[in-house]
Amino acid sequence: MSTTVTLGIDIGVGVGTAATASAAENAGFGYVTFDDGDLATGGVDAITRAAFVAATTSTVGLVATASTTYAEPFHLSSQLASLDYASRGRAGWVAARSLTPDVAAAWGREVVSIDVDLAREQRDSVTVARGLWDSWEDDAVIRDLPTGRFLNQQKLHYVDFVGEKYSVKGPAIVPRPPQGQVVVFGRFGEIDADLLDVVLVENEADARAVSGAHVVLDVEAPGDPAAAAALVERIAALDDAVGGVRLRPASVDGELRVAARYLLPQLFERGLAHRPVPATTLRSTLGLARPVNRFEAAR
After folding, report:
1. Hey, which residues does 161 pair with through a beta bridge?
2. Are 202 and 188 in contact, with CB atoms under 8 Å apart?
3. Residue 58, exposed/middle/buried by CB under 10 A (0-12, 13-18, 19+)?
4. What CA–CA distance (Å, rounded) separates 215 from 205?
5. For residues 155 and 295, what is the distance between their CA atoms, to the nearest angstrom?
6. 162 exposed, middle or buried (CB, 10 Å; 0-12, 13-18, 19+)?
7. What is the pLDDT of residue 113?
8. How confident is the model at residue 185 (pLDDT cuts 50, 70, 90)?
9. How many CB atoms are closer than 10 A to CB 126?
10. Residues 195-248 pLDDT 10s
11. In whole angstroms, what is the distance from residue 25 CA to residue 28 CA?
């Protein structure tokens, strides 16, 4: 392979989230992903946990899983934009689906179980979020104390989204995120790649089928030094279709220690992976450009 990959790790929903994220940051991971809490039993959602971790980390990206099936996209986009501000440009979003009736009950909604409906909610939610993040131009906030003007109203825009189940007028209630657009992750085959920044794939063949997005290979985390060495060689053999690798540990604490001791040092030494640079955004860590605001581009 001619380029280096960015490493991520899923830290799930367990206790000790802040300590685990800090350990992943110290090891050199580019980002951590948070699974959504069990809302049906009062679990804390992933965006809230990521925002809590933002204050105790400085370089690692914070990628929260949030379902598109029942949450209101206007509120979801506001939460994610706020996470980007709290983390100073390190926020990401795994746009996922909710498949269990318990989640529907927690939201007080009817169960959505048909694939076409799940796909529609996922597509529309991402479309709305992206539109709302652009509804404030970058220089919409002027803070002109002498005149008492905080905003340039001409730099705020309606998104005018009309879908099958709902419509959203806009603009957002949170200014455009520091990254312009929060980094949107999604699984291969669930949602069109042109709506995503990062596509999670399970094998190299799927990676070669993706165009126009950063591709991340989703693999089981190594549980011992031998498995770590084998993964190093697998990464060394990747072609340019893959830009990153995310580890899915069965036991976060133990397998994070294995990765920190046996996997990442070998990847860094061989130039196969890179650490995130302090004071940079998640987009920068992933090699993604900051997108131009659609309304500025149109003008």
Report:
1. 168
2. yes
3. middle
4. 11
5. 9
6. exposed
7. 81
8. very high
9. 22
10. 999 999 999 999 999 988 999 999 999 999 999 999 999 999 998 999 999 999
11. 5
Residue 153, amino acid: Q
Residues in the chain: 299
Number of Cβ atoms within 10 Å of the Cβ of 2: 5
User: How many Cβ atoms sit within 10 Å of the Cβ of residue 277?
Assistant: 11
Query: Which residues neighbour 53 within 8 Å (Cβ) at sequence distance 6 or greater?
Result: 17, 18, 21, 32, 62
Residue 217 and residue 9 in contact, taking contact as beta carbons nearer than 8 Å? no
Q: Are 131 and 176 in contact (CB under 8 A)?
A: no
| Phi-psi map region of 48: left, alpha, beta (phi>0 left; psi -120 to 50 alpha) | alpha
Residue 290: what residue type?
A: R
Q: How far apart are CA 53 and CA 123, in angstroms?
A: 28
* Cα–Cα dist 280/275, whole Å: 11
Strand stretches in the chain, DSSP E = 6-10, 31-34, 61-67, 91-96, 141-144, 149-151, 161-162, 167-168, 183-187, 198-201, 214-220, 244-248
- Residue showing tokens 């809230």: 48
Pairing state of beta strands 149-151 and 161-162? unpaired
Residue 266 has pLDDT above 70, yes or no: yes
* pTM for the full predicted model: 0.94
